[in-house]
Amino acid sequence: MSITLAKLKKMHQQGNKIACLTAYDASFAHWIAQAGVEVILVGDSLGMVVQGHATTLPVTLDEMVYHTQMVQRGNDQAWCIADLPFMSDSTLQQTLQSAARLMKEGGANMVKLEGGMRIVDTVRALSELGVPVCGHLGLLPQSVEKHGYKVQGKDDISAQRLKDEAQALQNAGADMLVLECVPQALAMEITERSAVPIIGIGSGVNTSGQVLVLNDMLGITVGNTPKFSKNFMLQSNSIQDALASYVDEVKGLQFPSSEHVLG
Question: What is the secondary structure of 193-222 as a DSSP string?
Answer without folding.
Answer: H-SS-EEEESS-S-SSEEEE-HHHHTT--S
